[in-house]
Amino acid sequence: MFKVQVQTADFDVGAEIARLHSGNTAIGAIASFIGLVRENNDGSNISTLTLEHYPGMTEKAIMDIIEEACRRWAICGCTVIHRVGTLNPAERIVLVLVASSHRGPAFDACEFIMDYLKTRAPFWKKEAMPGGDRWVEARESDTEAAARWQAGHG
């Protein structure tokens, strides 16, 4: 079972985990990642974080990432929910769940999907701060994390 959703509403992590493994007795592990809005980025206090995307294009890019993960690891199912709109510090931004028969592939695929979401999915982030707004540029560390998968590591 594979699910990709881009939405403004929050998500229920427990319900998504239950949905992912419901009735599938081949699943022996579910790895998860939950991304949250930080209150501080690069030394600046963040009032809100606004995420924008291209509907349709974003979901396809995420599904392409999941399909690549399926070619690399034995995955029984995957859920990716990414929020858009204006979010406050401590709110959830993204949920990645990967189900597999064993923990190793679940962990690896979950990390791979998150690394590629940060670098390949078409999202744009704008931080609102007391001194004004700024668009968030891609971090070198995110690019390096994604590059290790291309080099066959990870």
Structure, described:
The protein has 154 residues and is of the alpha+beta class. The protein has a single domain (2-150), classed as Aldehyde Oxidoreductase, domain 3 (Alpha-Beta Complex). Helix content is 35%, strand content 35%. It contains four helices and ten strands, in the order E-H-E-E-E-E-H-E-E-E-H-E-E-H. It has helices spanning 13-21, 57-72, 103-120, 140-150, and strands at 2-7, 29-36, 40-41, 44-45, 48-53, 77-83, 85-87, 92-100, 123-129, 132-135. The strands form three sheets. It has a four-stranded mixed beta sheet, with helices on both faces. Strand 9 and strand 10 (132-135) form a beta hairpin. Helix 3 (103-120) packs across helix 4 (140-150). It is globular and about 50 Å long.
Number of strands: 10
The span between the termini is 24 Å
User: What would CATH call the class?
Assistant: Alpha Beta
Q: In the CATH scheme, what's the topology name? A: Aldehyde Oxidoreductase, domain 3
Mean pLDDT: 92
Q: Oligomerization state of this entry?
A: single chain
Radius of gyration, taken over Cα atoms and rounded to an integer in Å? 16 Å
β-strand amount = 35-45%
Number of helices: 4
Number of separate domains: 1
- Name the strands of the widest sheet in spatial order: 1-6-8-2
Low-confidence stretches: none
Main sheet specs: 4 strands, mixed
